[in-house]
UniProtKB/TrEMBL annotation:
Membrane topology per record: Multi-pass membrane protein
InterPro entries from the UniProt entry: ATPase_P-typ_cyto_dom_N, ATPase_P-typ_P_site, ATPase_P-typ_TM_dom_sf, ATPase_P-typ_transduc_dom_A_sf, ATPase_P-type_domA, HAD-like_sf, HAD_sf, Heavy-metal-associated_CS
Protein name: Cu+-exporting ATPase
Lineage: Bacteria, Pseudomonadati, Pseudomonadota, Betaproteobacteria, Burkholderiales
Keyword Cell division: no
NCBIfam families, A to Z: ATPase-IB1_Cu (TIGR01511), ATPase-IB_hvy (TIGR01525), ATPase_P-type (TIGR01494)
Organism expressing this protein natively: Rhodoferax saidenbachensis
Length: 741
């Protein structure tokens, strides 16, 4: 459960749901509870996610689920951390198959010209346990549906098979009356086998669904399994093994070679290679040295290391990732609204069609038995299992396989929209470039170069901006002492100001200097040349009583990320426009664009951080579907403004927090090629959803008329109904073979 200041999210597992009608019924029951803002029920995960005003409402919500006829469970009941046996839950199916075999055997005998029909008493003894013991779940759920004045798959199965069983009983007991009235004394044809086989086939179908559903939740189970149970706590008495739940922020943890990091931390001692493949999809180990950030769940390489804990429990990156994937798999795609609308009226319409079939056959001169059997076939084949599984099964499979390769999809809407994207806007620094610029030139004005560098490094020493790091690194490389600044103030989108050695300094963009009235005429030629060479040029000035005086020009250069040029070319080959948004001057931005293979017309330069969202809005004009890719906190407004926001994590973990709040998709690896992968898995997942919905609708649209016209027996209808659900699940699972290009 996650609490917020104004609302809370409550997750509840739900047992006993069988079809789309069940989903609608549970959602309706939950939404009636006072204080519920929204409720989303997922058939594939057998869970509900409820947004409420009061986090203490869970007991009332569980009561509402139970009153609706379903079993409230723990949130993790449907997605367990331990793989269940592949034969779990098969016992009732096995018993049903064993009892039905003698009933079906006479049908084989008919094909061979043999009469192997069992006496009516034996048919009764074999079929009745299947009908009322193995099939008890259908009666229980169907009864609750009637009490709620609604319908579901269980009600259809219960009505259909009960009608077949009751008809057989009536024919059996009225057979002596037939002989007494001079009618043929042959044994009547009973339908015990039809009812028993339908119940067994439905049970078999549900078991197969559960087995395939376990495969769709494999991604969640794999992520859960990354959490170690114990940690080696380093205290005054040496190493002590403690449960991970007892580890606190600030503790020191020892991690031995080959072990998983139990929590997030910062490397204090040692040097190692870390396997982060399950978190980022990156197959190659990453070198970690003192000061590097370590992520819980990743695997330590050859070195014994000591880390200081910086996040535990729900605050770790792994917990955020698990929550992200769970949110995506629990969410309901916009296309699901069509299914919900159909499901709301589906079962009542089927009952009317079945009644119409019964009356039509009976009133046209056929026996009541024949009319009833055709009506039963309509009830059985119309069960909307496949309809309820079509969308969530595909979403679970698609988001699961995407997570395996480091593409975390936050919600189903982002997944559904991403395949329609025709413009991708990239933030430049840290997304298309390495994000670690170097100070390539320093042009002092009125003072020495070392003095200018000392002042600039002092002013920038408290900043986390990449350009600030470049200045400080240049000073350290020349062993220049860096003085701590005072009265430091960041001016968003422009630069930094503060006091160093008693001097009030300002360092930022040339645009800011022009706004301050700084005379740049003496260095304009040099600045233009540096910009033409692709450098980002900043200026440092001093504020005195006489005004603001220029002290130096600083030029910075960055390098394109490996694979960035190929990523842009891949998107362009797919007919997707790519745009680069940069705060750099036009010359520097276009120089980098040229190296990346972008046209000058696709460069938006000199864009302040606060204006990025407005630029995204401009790109969306004219009906364009825009994806924004960024890696920093400053990109959050633009990520939220885009149709699809993609936050790209960097090696230091940046971007992940942004993704949790503003972006629909998180790219856990700083690889621009993952953008094309995210759009591709969206396209394939939506295609699977549409295929599943088409076949689910087509199955019912074709099956119900065939059953009503007498072309399908209840047994064939039951088999087709069971196989339709399984086929939908298997079609969705084909997504597990996907790999990004």
């Amino acid at each position: 459960m996650t609490n917020e200041t104004s609302s809370a999210t409550i997750d509840i597992g739900i047992g006993g749901m069988t079809c789309a009608s069940c989903v609608m019924r549970v959602e309706k029951a939950l939404k009636k509870v006072p204080g519920v803002d929204s409720a989303t029920v997922n058939l594939a995960t057998e869970s509900a996610r409820i947004e409420v005003h009061n986090p203490d409402m869970e007991a009332r919500l569980r009561r509402a689920v139970r009153d609706a006829g379903y079993e409230p469970l723990a949130p993790s009941a449907a997605i367990d951390t331990v793989d269940a046996s592949p034969w779990a839950g098969f016992a009732p199916v096995a018993i049903g198959l064993a009892l039905c075999a003698p009933l079906v055997l006479p049908m084989v005998g008919d094909l061979l010209g043999q009469d192997w029909m069992l006496p009516a008493l034996w048919q009764f003894l074999l079929a009745t346990p299947v009908q009322f013991i193995l099939g008890a779940r259908f009666y229980k759920a169907g009864w609750h549906a009637l009490l709620a004045r609604t319908g579901n798959m269980d009600l259809l199965v219960a009505l259909g098979t009960s009608a077949g069983w009751a008809l057989s009983m009536w024919l059996w007991f009225t057979a002596p009356d037939h002989a007494a009235h001079g009618m043929p004394a042959m044994a009547p044809h009973l339908y015990f086998e039809s009812s028993a086989v339908v119940v067994t086939l439905v049970l078999l179908g549900k078991w197969l669904e559960a087995a395939t559903r376990r495969q769709t939740t494999a991604a969640i189970r794999a992520l859960h399994s990354l959490r170690p149970d114990t940690a080696h706590l380093l205290g005054s008495e040496g190493e002590v093994d403690v449960p991970v739940a007892e580890v606190l922020v600030g503790d020191k943890i020892v991690v031995k070679p080959g072990e998983r990091f139990p929590v997030d931390g910062t490397l204090l001692e040692g040097r190692t290679q870390v396997d982060e493949s399950m978190l980022t999809g990156e197959p190659l180990p990453v070198t970690k040295e003192v000061g590097a950030k370590l992520t819980g769940g990743s695997i330590n390489g050859e070195g014994r290391v000591v880390l200081q804990v910086r996040a535990v429990g729900v605050d770790t990156v792994l917990s955020h990732i698990i929550r992200l994937v769970e949110d995506a798999q629990a969410a309901k795609a916009p296309i699901q609204r069509l299914v919900d609308q159909v499901s709301a009226v589906f079962v009542p319409v089927v009952l009317v069609i079945a009644l119409g079939t019964l009356l039509a056959w009976w009133l046209t001169g056929h026996s009541f038995e024949v009319a009833l059997i055709h009506a039963v076939a309509v009830l059985v084949i119309a069960c909307p299992c496949a309809l309820g599984l079509a969308t969530p099964a595909a979403i679970m499979a698609g988001t699961g396989v995407a997570a395996k390769f480091g593409i975390l999809i936050k919600d189903a809407q982002a997944l559904e929209v991403a395949h329609t994207v025709n413009v991708v806007a990239f933030d430049k620094t840290g997304t298309l470039t390495v994000g670690q610029p170097r100070l390539t030139a320093l042009v002092p004005v009125g003072l020495g170069e070392d003095e200018a560098l000392r002042l600039a490094a002092g002013l920038q020493s408290g900043s986390e901006h990449p350009l600030a790091h470049a200045v400080v690194a240049a000073a350290k490389a020349k062993t220049i002492d860096v003085q701590v600044p005072t009265e430091v103030q960041a001016v968003p989108g422009r630069g930094t100001q503060g006091v160093v050695a008693g001097r009030t300094l300002l360092l930022g963009s040339l645009r800011w200097m022009a706004e301050l009235g700084v005379a740049l005429d003496t260095v304009s030629t040099q600045a233009a040349q540096l910009q033409a060479d692709g450098a980002t040029v900043s200026a440092m000035a001093e504020r005195t009583g006489a005004g603001v005086t220029l002290l130096a020009l600083l030029a910075f250069a960055d390098e394109p990320k490996p694979g960035a040029k190929e990523a842009l070319a891949t998107l362009k080959a797919r007919g997707i426009q790519t745009v680069m948004i940069s705060g750099d001057n036009r010359g520097a931005a276009e120089a980098m664009a040229k190296r990346l293979g972008l046209d000058a017309k696709d460069v938006l330069a000199e864009v302040l951080p606060g204006d990025k969202a407005a630029k995204v809005a401009e790109l969306k004009a004219g009906g364009k579907v825009v994806a924004m890719v960024g890696d920093g906190v400053n990109d959050a407004p633009a990520l939220a403004a885009a149709d699809v926001g993609m936050a790209m994590a960097n090696p230091n973990g940046g971007g992940t927090d942004v993704a949790m709040h503003a972006a629909g998709i998180t790219l856990m690896r700083g690889d621009p090629l993952l953008v094309a992968g995210a759009l591709d898995i969206s396209r394939r997942t939506v295609a699977k959803i549409r295929q599943n919905l088409f076949w689910a609708f087509a199955y019912n649209a074709a099956g119900i008329p065939l059953a009503a016209l007498g072309y399908l027996s209840p047994v064939v209808a039951g088999a087709a109904m069971a196989l339709s659900s399984v086929s939908v699940m298997i079609n969705a699972l084909l997504l597990k073979r996907w790999k990004p290009d």
